[in-house]
Here is the input.
Amino acid sequence: MGFFTRPTSVIRNTYSNIKETKFFTINHVHETILADAHHTSAKYKQEISEFDVTDLEPEYKSQHSAPFVVNSPLQLSMEFIEEYHIEANNTILVIGKINELYVKDELIENDGFINLSKGNIAAINGLDGYAIPKLKTRFSYQRPKTNVNDK
Amino acid sequence: MGFFTRPTSVIRNTYSNIKETKFFTINHVHETILADAHHTSAKYKQEISEFDVTDLEPEYKSQHSAPFVVNSPLQLSMEFIEEYHIEANNTILVIGKINELYVKDELIENDGFINLSKGNIAAINGLDGYAIPKLKTRFSYQRPKTNVNDK
Here is the structure.
């Protein structure tokens, strides 16, 4: 699993934290924390924790020291693996391994599918737009229509 | 803009098409073509066009030969730029440059924001789940709360 971070010519707290500690968490943003989650994009000094300037609460339950966000319906405990410098736009692709996965029970369907909409998890639109999607449909695994490959 | 493709140990038509022609298109999936769009994941032989086995229709309007999908609310004309082999999971990150962007007028808000939900564009959940999100809110650009950085 990976994410892109912008050039490190300005200070990137998230990136430098990860490189230093090797561990981080990914917490899905859900409806009740939308505004606070968006606020964490503000450029605070490195020594200021976003947990101190929002109502988001840290949760320590992993083997390592990176906190999760309390009540996030889906929480991932990540370990830094590798990074790639992307020349095309001077960004960095940071890749981590999922060490632990915490999912609220009510999101898990009988076949193991994780239904994000049951956790009111947000989808983003651009840099500042948020929706709370509701699952509409699932489709089966697709195979070629009969005999088309044999024509 | 980029996307990941799985190992090329099996034939990947999308990947080999792009490497050969250097051009491709990205077409947002919207509500009325959900089932056909999902069906394009079926493994057809290289010489079979997904346009021939679905109701999706090709649209040629770009300088190059790659077709768009008719009526897709947001269409991108892409040119291959570079690729990275991701060691962690043996995938390839394919990066393209956006040469042309076609957006239906009704998606564009007064400030230039592209409201995907006005095009009934799908969000995905896992490999086979689809939602049609409706934009809930937009937030302003966030700055640190007053004086917190000065404490």
Notes: The two ends of chain B are 39 Å apart (CA to CA). The first strand of chain B starts at residue 2 and ends at 5. The mean pLDDT of chain B is 92. Strands of chain B lie at 2-5, 23-27, 58-59, 68-69, 74-86, 91-103, 123-125, 129-131, 135-138.
